[in-house]
Design brief:
It contains 2 helices and 15 strands. With about 200 residues, the protein is mostly beta strands. The protein has one domain: Jelly Rolls, CATH 2.60.120. Strands 1, 3, 4, 6, 11, 12, 13 and 15 form an 8-stranded antiparallel sheet that branches. The protein has a 7-stranded antiparallel sheet with strand order 2-5-14-7-8-9-10, with no helix packed on it. The protein is globular. It starts with a helix and ends with a strand.
Length: about 200
């Protein structure tokens, strides 16, 4: 009997460690941790969709629509899928800390730029870690995106592409993450964060 109880407790503990820290299937227009900003986001069929409003883009200093998720985390895997239409020029995934940006990926037709934000920079400017020319925006296709942050390492998976980057700034505590875009229409689904 003791062995069964111990096995049960170990199983429950293991399952709890895989429980999502956050999950957004967009079944509801509101979620406590989600902030849909800089545009008219719609939520239907388990998908969030927005079309850039050019007036809002200018008003927001050339920043397009964005989904923010307020979630304190350090080491975690963040997953989602996105579908840009042909007019989308960039899709930007960012993890932020209390003192500013920590990690960023900028996807465009030219490839993916991976950026770090060293804390010793007075103006908190980013540095380029890599430009992945093999990873490009795929119009009208769902693209799965996964970022695993573990200490100073960030493992990026976009479609079939996987690469790990190392920078000490990645180990900083994060307060939120976001997915933004410029121009056109973007759809997002299957947002999840696991430990």
């Amino acid at each position: 009997m003791k062995h069964l109880l111990l096995l049960f407790l170990l199983t429950v503990s293991a399952l709890a460690s895989y429980a999502p820290l956050l999950q957004d299937d967009f079944s509801a227009p509101k979620l406590e941790q989600r902030r849909a900003m800089r545009g008219e986001w719609t939520f239907a069929d388990h998908t969030a969709t927005c079309t850039q409003d050019d007036e809002l883009f200018k008003k927001n200093k050339d920043h397009g629509p964005i989904l923010f998720y307020d979630l304190a985390h350090t080491d975690a895997t963040l997953r989602l899928a996105f579908k840009p239409d042909a007019a989308v020029k960039t899709v930007v995934f960012t993890c932020n800390g209390a003192d500013g940006h920590v990690f960023r990926i900028v996807l465009s037709a030219a490839g993916a730029s991976v950026r770090a934000f060293p804390t010793d920079s007075q103006d908190h400017k980013s540095i380029a870690l890599a430009t992945e020319k093999a990873v490009k925006l795929a119009p009208s296709q769902w693209t799965p995106l996964s970022v695993t942050l573990q200490g100073s390492k960030a493992t990026l998976k976009i479609g079939d592409f996987t690469q790990t980057y190392d920078h000490p700034s990645f180990a900083r505590a994060k307060t939120n993450f976001s997915l933004g875009f410029s121009f056109g229409t973007l759809s997002v689904k299957e947002v999840a964060v696991v430990k």
